[in-house]
Amino acid sequence: MARGNRVVARLVNGAMIKGTTEDFFPRRPVFHVTLEGSELVVEVRTRLLKAVFFVRELAGDTSRRDVRGFLAAPGETSQGKKLAVRFKDGELLCGHSLSYSPEREGFFMFPSDGGTNNLRVYVLTSATAEIKAGPAADALARRILGQEAA
After folding, report:
1. Which of 4, 7, 39, 117 has the greatest count of CB atoms below 10 A from its CB?
2. What span, in angstroms and rounded, lies between the C-alpha atoms of 28 and 11?
3. Tell me: the pLDDT tens digits for 34-83?
4. Can you tell me the distance from the alpha carbon of 122 to that of 110, in angstroms, rounded to the nearest whole number?
């Protein structure tokens, strides 16, 4: 049985590191990931990250299509305020956060799609192009998803 949290660390350069971590803390400059299927441990520099996805399974389910945007939900839940995040690479992430503040280096989000492989995501604010909360989050999600459909 794997120890620690299963994570997929996505770097701003597009690289991905999959494995487990026991020492990720939001304000630390580095953490370590034991790579999937090996005992090799790599050091990950937080400043190079786009986001850290804490996942149910490292393999995921390639046939599953996550719900994009928001499910019918109130603007604020027990998981926090509704947020839509557009990363600099164009990816859209929708969910809720208890800890978002524009002044912080990063924050945790819970995905709006409860059936996704992602349990929670730590987003690095520096990797984002746009973050909207509440009704503005719905508008951002509709705008991005509308552009993709066109």
Report:
1. 7
2. 16
3. 998 899 999 999 999 999 999 999 886 665 555 455 545 545 556 688 99
4. 9
